[in-house]
Amino acid sequence: MKLYPRTSSGLFSLQSLLKSGFSPTLNSIDRFLRYLYRLQKFNCILQFYSQLDSKQININHRIYSIVSWAFLNLNRYEDAEKFINIHISKASIFPRTHMLDSLIHGFSITRDDPSKGLLILRDCLRNHGAFPSSLTFCSLIYRFVEKGEMDNAIEVLEMMTNKNVNYPFDNFVCSAVISGFCKIGKPELALGFFESAVDSGVLVPNLVTYTTLVSALCQLGKVDEVRDLVRRLEDEGFEFDCVFYSNWIHGYFKGGALVDALMQDREMVEKGMNRDVVSYSILIDGLSKEGNVEEALGLLGKMIKEGVEPNLITYTAIIRGLCKMGKLEEAFVLFDRILSVGIEVDEFLYVTLIDGICRKGNLNRAFSMLGDMEQRGIQPSILTYNTVINGLCMAGRVSEADEVSKGVVGDVITYSTLLDSYIKVQNIDAVLEIRRRFLEAKIPMDLVMCNILLKAFLLMGAYGEADALYRAMPEMDLTPDTATYATMIKGYCKTGQIEEALEMFNELRKSSVSAAVCYNRIIDALCKKGMLDTATEVLIELWEKGLYLDIHTSRTLLHSIHANGGDKGILGLVYGLEQLNSDVCLGMLNDAILLLCKRGSFEAAIEVYMIMRRKGLTVTFPSTILKTLVDNLRSLDAYLLVVNAGETTLSSMDVIDYTIIINGLCKEGFLVKALNLCSFAKSRGVTLNTITYNSLINGLCQQGCLVEALRLFDSLENIGLVPSEVTYGILIDNLCKEGLFLDAEKLLDSMVSKGLVPNIIIYNSIVDGYCKLGQTEDAMRVVSRKMMGRVTPDAFTVSSMIKGYCKKGDMEEALSVFTEFKDKNISADFFGFLFLIKGFCTKGRMEEARGLLREMLVSESVVKLINRVDAELAESESIRGFLVELCEQGRVPQAIKILDEISSTIYPSGKNLGSYQRLQFLNDVNEEEIKKKDYVHDFHSLHSTVSSLCTSGKLEQANEFVMSVLSCMPR
């Protein structure tokens, strides 16, 4: 008799018999269940088994197996696990391997819960001695790698290679693990795993494995090792394919080696390999991330021309690059092209565009894109909403971002973004509310969120809660990082809790975290508390650990020590650093010299300099130090520092540094030293420029050596230098001062013929020079013929002309000039008005003088000048008001006296610097200096000096002096 029902009506006859009390044989039950299994009636199997169980009918291992498979086929994995665990021990020949494979596969793949699969695997190996297949082990490894859970992946791999299991793993598994470590930013672990696998003999790498290994090496920046590996593999007969090269190029891009990536791409093409869509996409993505979007677009065009169709990844890479550069419209043009060619867009592309829109601050358009997504059937996930929330926060619209977050199921990024934004605006109530929502959501906390919460607690002054959260980090499987310690230390330091900050700093020192920022913050805080000895100890520890000292921290410590102990304090610090490695304290020692120079402590600065010289350190002379010395009229000290410095120090000096000193020496009258420094600079390979020679020419002119200045000027073209407008201006001005107007005008014409445009100052030098000598016709000729059409006369030009006519007593012409230029909206300056008023007053034409005085007192430039004097004198009565009153009373002479006083206040007559410079030169040129062949001497008083030496019988010295002067001239 057959127990297989042939019709649906008789299908459940055995079940009916069971209900009526019939007890079938195990063989009948087995055949019936197998029949149901073939028909895939899995629910019927479970119902029938339930009846068997309720009747307490004993069944065999085959029936247990069928029931287990029924659970698995219905994806009832929890029930399957429970059933198998209960009955696996009841049947010694229970079929285990395939069933466990399916159970683990169900959890890890179908349910996307590889962690549950790992728990079952552990239980199998530990309690049941059952070994799933090697494929199951590999599948679990792949799933963990995909999720970035490399600890679990390695655990499965270790189980797989355990001596009890001893499954071999292939190159695909090895490649997956290496790739996984690279994805989570741990290429060093990828390299370590590869080396360990090869050394243990369990792995014989092939091209697939080497392809992923190249990625790890590139991320570690080991470019040379990659090249060596490739050479070795080529020698071993490996033939590389497009995939290998693409991975290599991708690794270079990830490591920031753009040039190397492009070189490898060229090599790949030269070897006859055609780029596919992946290799093109890698190139385009790498170029776009580096900001070379134009080149990426060029590659896109080439790709299409070669018949390689770009995919969504290709287009997304370029759009991301365009958005990053703020080229939104171009990004949307490309977006429209994607739609037109029928490529199905995804959420990530929308997120890229929305992020670009948010960065531009166009939030309305961002919300419009959300609507567009939904119209295309793309449901925005939390990734999209987080992008919008971040955009709103960046635009300062944190409350709106908060409202958006309430309409979605947020993740840790949602809450950390909002929390950080509220912290920035110091909205304590909102911070507390976001924290409450985060805790209610029961979202696992990550390190970023933890650090933001710490910052929030410290902002609120909740130091106890901050400390409690910090102490609870190990329980949450979180390890404090640099940001954690920096946040805690900064929070304590900000409120002056130096003891707590030091306690946290000690926690840092015990950890494996090496955070220069924490050392710098502690030093800064200790300085503010005046704990300078402790700050110095921390500084030394920082250097001993090879950490970086922030320039702000360095200068804060130096300023604090100087404020507390003056020059001695700085010198004490410098001497205390002598036992350290010389290079680490180089920057601080140079800063010490700078600080001392700025404080005018030049002797102490030189002492620090000498200490550095003894230690063989490179003393840098930035322009700031040199300029400080020059500004304090200590150009000679700057000169001595330079000429006595070592070769390494001088290598950091450029023409600007030398020019600063040369200019200062010229202004202070040390022209001998200036010329000597020129020769010194040339001997060190520094090419002097026109600015340097301008300083020398001006120095020569100031010391009355106009002829020598002109010779130096004539020699510039011979050494390949082109005189500038400043060069011509210096010489023209000094020619005019010497009354050599024809030479000045010739030089002016030469300047114009060479394409240089004289400025108003140069023209004014000639006009003013003529006017001082009363040659007003020549001055007017220059104004009318040479200035017109080139430059516009200014107030100084007009005032110079007025002064010239007033000196001749020709008040009509003076007034005519004043009126003519006033009609052209060019008014006289303070002195122009004063010359006119004095002139008319001298002529007895008081009403005209009074009218000009009245006009002067409403001139904008004059009023500003008088108000400036008013502010400096701090008089209770306004000077201008007093002058107006005198004018109204007709007391012009008294007003003139006050105007003269104003003139002397603005332009006080000081000592004759030129006389001082000449005296200084005569002091410099003594018998000892003449004997020093390494000095180049001044041109000043050439004839008198030579005459003096000859008269005293020192002919050899006189000859040497002349030769020295001639040698300084450029050839």
TrEMBL record:
Q: InterPro entries given for it?
A: Mito_RNA_Proc_CCM1 (IPR051114), PPR_rpt (IPR002885), TPR-like_helical_dom_sf (IPR011990)
PPR repeats: from-to residues: 170-204, 206-240, 276-310, 311-345, 346-380, 411-445, 446-480, 481-515, 654-688, 689-723, 724-758, 759-793, 794-828, 829-863
Q: Which domain of life is it from?
A: Eukaryota
Q: Which UniProt keywords apply?
A: Repeat
Signal sequence residues: none
* NCBIfam families (alphabetical): PPR
Protein family per UniProt: Belongs to the PPR family. P subfamily.
- Protein name from the UniProt record: Pentatricopeptide repeat-containing protein At5g57250, mitochondrial
